[in-house]
């Protein structure tokens, strides 16, 4: 019985922390939502995001101290790269929102190949300082559970998988709404605002 509690208490704590960190509208979430609405290789996109999240969470729990001490330059560099990446995507989303003629395109055809979709999913995950801050925070908090840190990591990984499933399923439920071209324009406009805001926040941290 004690062994069961020693696993589930850290797991529940990791689950709660993970949901609090991951269940937010950010760059990765906006990208997944759009891919889901397009039915553009959403399974592959979710698989890439889930695999990267799990790998990074596990690695952080095992070696967070070494990463923090030896790669102090990482966060500023990632901030600049992430801001540039998000700014480009914001401009593209704004152009789609502005163009009435292009609003129906996502509903008519798949916009990217599977390879492009998976690479974009990878980029939205790793070229994002907020992601690394979350990963480092999880690794740090896990240390409080000692030899049960792995259970805490498992809870955080579960939270990541649940949020990705919610995004994928939510996009499917919302698909009837997005038969209207105006809904696509509103979505793209919202995505552009989210991306631009995140880019400015990243720049504010390093400038």
Output the keywords.
207 residues, mainly alpha, cell membrane, Lysine transporter LysE, membrane, transmembrane helix, LeuE-type
Question: Would you spell out the secondary-structure blueprint of this structure?
Answer:
Elements: H1 2-22, H2 27-38, H3 42-70, H4 74-98, H5 105-108, H6 114-126, H7 129-142, H8 149-174, H9 181-206
Helix pairs in contact: 1-8, 2-6, 2-8, 2-9, 3-6, 3-7, 3-8, 4-9
The count of DSSP E runs of length 2 or more, i.e. the number of strands, is 0
Shape: globular
What does the largest sheet look like?
none
What is the domain total for the residues? 1
Distance between the termini: 53 Å
Mean pLDDT: 76
Question: What order do the helices and strands follow?
Answer: HHHHHHHHH
Number of helices: 9
Q: SS-based structural class?
A: mainly alpha
Compact description:
This protein has about 210 residues and is mostly helical. The chain has 9 helices and no strands. It starts with a helix and ends with a helix.
